[in-house]
Amino acid sequence: MKLYDKIVFVDKNGTCRAPMAAEIFKEISTGSGIEAYARGLVVLFPEPMNQKAEAVMASNGFSVQGYMSSPLVEEDVGKNTLVIAMEEGYRQKVLEMFEDIEERQVRVLTELVGDELEIVNPYGGSLQVYGLCYETMFASIKKLANLFTEI
């Protein structure tokens, strides 16, 4: 029996790290039966993926054309949902937003997989910074996918 059937990756506005993480997880965990989504905590209107993040994803073989950000809402968070935040502050915000969510359901990606540092927010950085973010995230997501194959 699986603990989770859905993972929702969360960052501030849902246009960079969360969609990158969701797409990487979908690719790595094909056949796991776990759905992956990206959401933002502050989404006033749908926005496309950050252009540099999209370029890095495309250069690594991922197609994210047509992606638009969505806010994290109550319907996204069920009993079998794991919410993975990119930073501790976002984890705390999710716990404050949804009174019925259990602490075990909201984790920081790097803490969950045993990495020491959080995934750096590349916003405003060069294309190389976005590339480094992708590489770091890919390694963490690979560890995450391995956790679900061990369960």
Q: How many H/I helical runs?
A: 5
Spatial gap, N to C terminus? 9 Å
Instruction: Specify the CATH architecture.
Output: 3-Layer(aba) Sandwich
Profile the largest sheet: 4 strands, parallel
What's the structural domain tally? 1
Order of helices and strands: EHEHEHEHH
Kindly report the CATH topology: Rossmann fold
Average predicted local confidence, pLDDT: 93
Task: Identify the strand order in the major beta sheet.
Answer: 2-1-3-4
Report strand %. 5-15%
As residue ranges, the low-confidence spans are none
User: Cα-atom Rg, whole angstroms?
Assistant: 14 Å
| Tally of strands | 4
Helix content: 25-40%
Name the CATH superfamily classification. Answer: Response regulator
Structure characteristics:
151 residues, alpha/beta, Rossmann fold, 4-stranded parallel beta sheet
Layout of helices and strands, plus pairs?
Blueprint: E1 6-11, H1 17-28, E2 35-40, H2 51-59, E3 81-85, H3 88-97, E4 106-108, H4 109-113, H5 127-150
Parallel strand pairs: 1-2, 1-3, 3-4
Short description:
This protein has 151 residues and is of the alpha/beta class. It is built from 5 helices and 4 strands; from the N terminus they run βαβαβαβαα.
Structure description:
With 151 residues, the protein is of the alpha/beta class. The protein has one domain: Rossmann fold (3-Layer(aba) Sandwich). The chain is 40% helix and 13% strand. The protein is built from five helices and four strands. It has a four-stranded parallel β-sheet, sandwiched between helices. Helix 1 (17-28) crosses helix 5 and helix 2 (51-59) crosses helix 5. The longest helix has 24 residues, at 127-150. The chain is globular. The N and C termini lie close together (9 Å). The mean pLDDT is 93.
